Amino acid sequence: MEGNSLKEKRQVIRSIIERLKNRFNISIAEVGDLDVIRRSSIGFTVVSNEKTYIERLMGKVINFIDSDVRVQIIDIDKEIH
Asked: What is the rounded CA–CA span in Å between residue 39 and residue 56?
């Protein structure tokens, strides 16, 4: 993640989160590494009775984040129940 301050980081993360909320209608928040300047952990949830829909939407969300040049995805942890 680019940026040299927590303020810059939070602006980038907030921008990404708001765009994802509006575009995909998901619940999403920064859930870890809150006080680390160059790292963030974002969690989101999708609710549906169709597993294929959830998998497809999760892929779209991940691709959307990955396409943002301001950030780099390091690790993904998926859980589907």
From this structure: 26
6-66: CATH class: alpha beta
Is there a contact between 72 and 1 (Cβ–Cβ < 8 Å)?
Answer: yes
Per-residue pLDDT, 27: 96
Structural domain boundaries of the chain?
6-66
Tell me the pLDDT tens digit for each residue of 32-67: 999 999 999 999 999 999 999 999 999 999 999 999
- Specify the pLDDT at position 3: 63
d(CA 6, CA 12): 10
